[in-house]
Amino acid sequence: MNIANSRQIYQQQTTLFKALAHPTRLQILDLLAHEGEACVCHLTAVLGKRQPYVSQQLMVLREAGLVDTREDGLMVYYRLRGEHGPGLRDLLAASRAMLGLPVLVPATGPAPGCTCPKCRPTP
Q1: Spatial distance between the Cα atoms of 115 and 113, rounded to a whole number of angstroms
Q2: Each residue of 4-63: pLDDT tens digit?
Q3: Residue 25's closest CA among 50, 69, 62, 71?
Q4: For the chain, which domains are there?
Q5: Do residues 118 and 42 make contact, with C-beta atoms less than 8 angstroms apart?
Q6: For position 108, what pLDDT does the model report?
Q7: How far is it, in rounded angstroms, from Cα 50 to Cα 24?
Q8: In terms of Cα–Cα distance, which of 58, 74, 67 is closest to 22?
Q9: I need a labelling partner for 113 at 20 to 30 A (CA). Which of 10, 21, 41, 44 fits?
């Protein structure tokens, strides 16, 4: 395929980069990369953002095909989409390296103020 006839490929790349072009979405992807999966209430507590705002950012990531969901009762858990996880981690790390930025490792574990099963203290 020649470069002149590859409009669809460039359009798909544009969609990906648009989804990545937001600080909160990058934070969400980092958290999911390190924690495996998280519910909206957990992400809200960790990010210190309101639930509707976090949900809106998750919707953009989901529509771009970067995250999947898993339902467990009333809880909805988000995780990196299986086939994209390793490549996405590499892309985030490469972009930081290009900019001379440090590697970020989000804190994992219970989030203050979160009431999800992951954060509830075990009796």
Answers
A1: 6
A2: 678 888 888 899 899 999 999 999 998 998 888 999 999 999 999 999 999 999 999 999
A3: 62
A4: 3-99 (1.10.10.10)
A5: yes
A6: 66
A7: 12
A8: 58
A9: 21
